[in-house]
Structure formats: structure tokens, C-alpha cells
């Protein structure tokens, strides 16, 4: 049977996923999108050749519904979907924080729900999408979810109890690296480099370091030690990072992100 998949609330993440599915060979005729604004629906139709429908039409006609609205908008969407969503639909939530139990309570009894936390590198097929099953999701539902998200990068299954932590590490993770690149580029300005050259140097250092982390098989400590010459330049910088408690700041920062994911689950806006 050909699966029909609908992306509901097609913003940044929804569109990244949609474009990845199209690149991965999904036919536009098997995909539906929904959007809040008619101009956005037209944009998606023009850009990707997919049909834009209402949320209730998507619930009626698609086998799988991928919900990519903000957590704060999910309750309104579920109010709309609940009366029109048969229990055999696979519902995939891409929202931070929200547990599968919330969807199971709001939709028909027995509805299979899968929770996924992806990240914006989906736009360049380098996402990490962390996948957890709700209580009615089977191996087949997880496999279909992974097939969809493998189109935009890698997938990893975790128990749902680890999803808030995964959100802090990998959902939000790219933002920390961008923040660091921004700060390091400013440091280049401080040291007298033109901004474009500073940017190029830092971005290439980031790409090179990422490739080493992925491909060398070496531990990050070894990779850092290999850069850090006795009485050299790097150790002076490392001393300042330690003086400023950057490691402790990272631990606190990711814990704060994890805590916010839990707050979203509790419905805190
Ligand atoms: N931005 C990121 O890096 C990541 C975001 N997420 C999650 O993905 C979800 C979406 O995030 P973004 O794409 O960044 O947000 P976004 O704001 O770009 O997209 C959400 C879209 O949903 C639409 N929408 C809201 N209510 C709607 C409704 N009732 N019917 C139809 N459309 C509706 C909005 O108009 C908007 O276009 C969130 O739940 C977020 O937690 C997950 C991983 C990473
Ligand atoms: O900041 C957020 O809430 C979303 C979820 C993970 C990344 N962005």
C-alpha cells in the first residue's frame, strides 16, 4: 500500500522534512501539507508541487500525520484533529517537550504515536532525529518513522524518558555551535582580521573538527591534546576557557534546556 503522509504546520522544520522526503524520492502526490496562512500554503504548493489542505482533510486522507507546530500551538491543533482522526493513523510529533501520552489522551484510544526530536541540519541532510515509541506504536510504525527521517540525516532510537535530554543535546545542539562560531568570529575582529576572513577561518575549523570527530575514531580529548603543543598557543587559550568555567557553563546550559523541555510538557508557555 502506498503511504500518504501529511505534514501539519509546515514551518522551518516541517518544510525541511518535506524537502528531504521529496529529495529522497517520495512522490509529491503522496504528500500533503497544511499551513495556517493561505500565502504560506501557496508558497509550499509553488515551491514543492505538493497539495495544501486543511488539517481536518489531512487527518481524513493521510495515513501518517507529522505534527510540526510549536508545542504551544499543539493543543489547538489537537482540538481540531481529534474528531477527524481515525485510530489507525500514525501520528508523529516533532514538538519539543510534549510526551506521547498527551497525544494518546487527546486522540482516539489506541492511536499509535511516535515522538521525534530532529534538528535544523535536516536542511542539508545532516539531521539527527531522535525517535521514541508511544504505548501503541509498533516496530512497523517506528520503521516508517525512521524511513521518513532518514531522508534528512541520521536517526537514533531512545526510550522516551531520554527525550528531554536528547532535545537539550541534539535538538538545540546546532544553536550552541553557531553561538560559538559567532563569538570566535568576534574574537577574530578583536585580533584585527576582516570579518569575512575570520568567518571563513572559523567555519572551516568547525568543519574540519567535525570531520575529525566523525571519522578519526579518536576520543575528543586525544584530538584536543594533538592540537595543544607544550608551551604553545592553544594551552593559553584553554587556560582562559577553564578560568571562565566554560565547561561548567555548558553543563548548566544543557541542563537548563532539558528543564525547559520538561516545562513544555507541563504546559508552561
Ligand atoms: N527549530 C528547531 O531547531 C527545531 C524545532 N523543533 C520543533 O519543531 C516544531 C516546529 O518548529 P519550527 O519549525 O522551528 O517552527 P515554525 O514556527 O517555523 O513552524 C511552525 C508552523 O506551524 C504553523 N501552525 C501553527 N499552528 C497551526 C495550525 N493549527 N495549523 C496549521 N499550521 C499551524 C505556523 O504557522 C508555523 O508555520 C516545534 O514543535 C519545535 O519544538 C524540533 C527540533 C528542532
Ligand atoms: O528551541 C526550541 O524549543 C526548539 C526545539 C529544539 C530546537 N529548537
From TrEMBL:
Q: Which residues hold NADPH? A: 55
Q: Where is the Pyrroline-5-carboxylate reductase dimerisation domain positioned along the sequence?
A: 160-264
Q: Which residues form the signal peptide?
A: none
Does the UniProt entry include the keyword Signal?
no
What highest taxon heads this organism's lineage? Bacteria
Q: Keywords, A to Z?
A: Amino-acid biosynthesis, Cytoplasm, NADP, Oxidoreductase, Proline biosynthesis
Q: What is its main location?
A: cytoplasm
Q: Name one GO cellular component term.
A: cytoplasm
Using the record's annotation, list all stretches that form the Pyrroline-5-carboxylate reductase catalytic N-terminal domain. 4-97
Reactions it catalyzes = L-proline + NAD(+) = (S)-1-pyrroline-5-carboxylate + NADH + 2 H(+); L-proline + NADP(+) = (S)-1-pyrroline-5-carboxylate + NADPH + 2 H(+)
The entry's family comment says: Belongs to the pyrroline-5-carboxylate reductase family.
Q: What is this protein called?
A: Pyrroline-5-carboxylate reductase
Amino acid at each position: 500500500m502506498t503511504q500518504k503522509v501529511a505534514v501539519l504546520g509546515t514551518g522551518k522544520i516541517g518544510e525541511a522534512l518535506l524537502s528531504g522526503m521529496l529529495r529522497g524520492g517520495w512522490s509529491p502526490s503522496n504528500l500533503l501539507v497544511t499551513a495556517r496562512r493561505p500565502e504560506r500554503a501557496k508558497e509550499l504548493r509553488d515551491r514543492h508541487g505538493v497539495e495544501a489542505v486543511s488539517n481536518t482533510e489531512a487527518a481524513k486522507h493521510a495515513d501518517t500525520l507529522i505534527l510540526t507546530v510549536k508545542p504551544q500551538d499543539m493543543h489547538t491543533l489537537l482540538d481540531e484533529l481529534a474528531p477527524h482522526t481515525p485510530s489507525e493513523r500514525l501520528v508523529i510529533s516533532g514538538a519539543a517537550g510534549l510526551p506521547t501520552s498527551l497525544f494518546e489522551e487527546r486522540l482516539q484510544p489506541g492511536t499509535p504515536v511516535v515522538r521525534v526530536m530532529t534538528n535544523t541540519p535536516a536542511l542539508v541532510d545532516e539531521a539527527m532525529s531522535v525517535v521514541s515509541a508511544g504505548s501503541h506504536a509498533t516496530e512497523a510504525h517506528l520503521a516508517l518513522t525512521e524511513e521518513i527521517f532518514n531522508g534528512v540525516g541520521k536517526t537514533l532510537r531512545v526510550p522516551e524518558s531520554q527525550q528531554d535530554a536528547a532535545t537539550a543535546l541534539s535538538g538545540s545542539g546546532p544553536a550552541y555551535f553557531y553561538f560559538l562560531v559567532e563569538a570566535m568570529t568576534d574574537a577574530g575582529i578583536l585580533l584585527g582580521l576582516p570579518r569575512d576572513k575570520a568567518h571563513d577561518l572559523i567555519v572551516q575549523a568547525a568543519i574540519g573538527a567535525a570531520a575529525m570527530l566523525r571519522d578519526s575514531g579518536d576520543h575528543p580529548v586525544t584530538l584536543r591534546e594533538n592540537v595543544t603543543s607544550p608551551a604553545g598557543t592553544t594551552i593559553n587559550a584553554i587556560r582562559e576557557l577553564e578560568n571562565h568555567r566554560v565547561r561548567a557553563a555548558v553543563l548548566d546550559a544543557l541542563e537548563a534546556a532539558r528543564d525547559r523541555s520538561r516545562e513544555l510538557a507541563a504546559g508552561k508557555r
